[in-house]
Amino acid sequence: MDSNSFRGIMGAFATGVTVVTTCVDGLYHGFTANAVSSVSLEPPLLLVCADKGGIAHGQLTRAESFGVSILSAEQEEVSTLFASRAEPGTEGIRDLPFRVGETGAPLLDGALAWLECRSHSRAEGGDHTIFFGEAVDGGSDAEQDPLLFFRGGYRFVSPLG
Ligand SMILES: Cc1cc2nc3c(=O)[nH]c(=O)nc-3n(C[C@H](O)[C@H](O)[C@H](O)COP(=O)(O)O)c2cc1C
Question: Is the CB of 55 under 6 A from ligand 1?
C-alpha cells in the first residue's frame, strides 16, 4: 500500500491531540503528536511515535523525561503552533506558560489533561521511532472538552442523541 492511501485510511481513526515537551541541556522543545497511546497499566506506560526527521526525535532520544499535554477544544492554535518545526530554545516553549515537573519535564499550562513521563525505552518503527514513557504524575480538568483530529482536520466532540 502506498503512504497516501495508508495515511488517508488511518485518518479515519479519530484521535485526541497532544503536545509532547522536553527539556534537554536547558533547551526546551515541544511538538504536536497524535500517534500517542496508552500501552500498559502496570507499570503505567504510554508511547509516542516521532518522525526520525523531526527535531523532536533528537530531543526525545536524549531526554530523561517528557511531558504529554492533552489539548482541550480551546487549544487548536496551540496544536497548529507546535506542528511547525522549531529549534529548541532556552527561553521557554514558544512563549506559552508552562511549568516544570518533578522529573524536569516541561508541561504546558491550560491543557485538558497532562502526564509527566520518565523515558522508559524505544522501539524501531519504520520512519518513526516509538518512545515509551512511564507516567509518574498527571492530572486532568474535568470541565474541559478535548480537541480531536479526524481526516486531516480538527473536530470537537458532540454528545450522542
Ligand atoms: C494533529 C497532528 C498530529 C501530529 N502527530 C505527529 C506524531 O504523532 N508524530 C510526529 O512525529 N509528528 C506528528 N505531527 C507532525 C509534527 O507536529 C510536525 O512535523 C512538527 O513540525 C515537528 O516539529 P519538530 O521538527 O520541531 O520536532 C503531527 C501534526 C499534527 C498537526
Answer: yes
Contact yes or no for 66/80 (Cβ under 8 A): no
Phi and psi (nearest 5°) for 106? Answer: -80, 150
How far apart, in whole angstroms, are the C-alpha atoms of residue 160 and residue 118?
Answer: 37
Indicate which atom in ligand 1 lies nearest the CA of residue 84.
21
Whole-number Å distance between alpha carbons of 82 and 93 = 9
| Three-state secondary-structure class, residue 109 | coil
Specify the residue with its C-alpha closest to ligand 1, atom 19: 83
Quick one: 160 exposed, middle or buried, by C-beta within 10 A (0-12, 13-18, 19+)?
exposed
Close Cβ partners of 154 (under 8 Å, ≥ 6 residues apart): 17, 76, 79, 147, 148
Pick 65 or 143 by higher pLDDT. Answer: 65
Q: Which helix (H) or strand (E) holds 121?
A: strand 113-125
Q: How far is the CA of 32 from the centre of ligand 1 (A)?
A: 5
pLDDT-derived band at 99, boundaries 50, 70, 90: very high
Query: Hey, whose CA ends up nearest to atom 6 of ligand 1?
Result: 33
Query: 10 Å Cβ neighbour count for 12?
Result: 8
